[in-house]
Inverse folding.
């Protein structure tokens, strides 16, 4: 079952695209906290939804007139033989005005998480 893979993925189980047997309990997306984090505390690094990045598809500058952006990680619609083999580095592209059921984003911050002690210092 791919849901117990080291990256804790929500991916397609069954014969894609004919039958999703949903062994992990989900036919489509799952809540982010449904699978436990990996050793680094990261969740849903593969599967669930492809995630937009700020990177241009044609790195480093892109091609004039082309606005395709990179999406990474695969989605719940990926199966064992499809979607670049479930790698965190799986890379694909779409234009920024694209939308789909299996396309989303990840909130990120370069600031470390705040603790209750940090909050008390600010007061």
């Amino acid at each position: 079952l791919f849901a117990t893979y080291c990256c804790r993925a929500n991916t397609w189980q069954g014969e894609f695209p004919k039958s999703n047997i949903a062994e992990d309990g989900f036919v489509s997306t799952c809540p982010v906290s449904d699978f436990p984090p990996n050793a680094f505390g990261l969740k849903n690094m593969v599967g669930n939804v492809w995630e937009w990045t700020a990177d241009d598809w044609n790195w480093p500058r892109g091609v004039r007139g082309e606005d395709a952006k990179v999406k990474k990680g695969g989605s719940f619609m990926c199966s064992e033989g499809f979607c670049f083999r479930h790698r965190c580095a799986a890379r694909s592209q779409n234009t920024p005005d694209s939308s789909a059921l299996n396309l989303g984003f990840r909130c990120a911050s370069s600031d470390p998480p705040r603790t209750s002690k940090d909050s008390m210092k600010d007061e």
About this structure: Helices lie at 116-122. Confidence is low (pLDDT under 50) at residues 1-6.
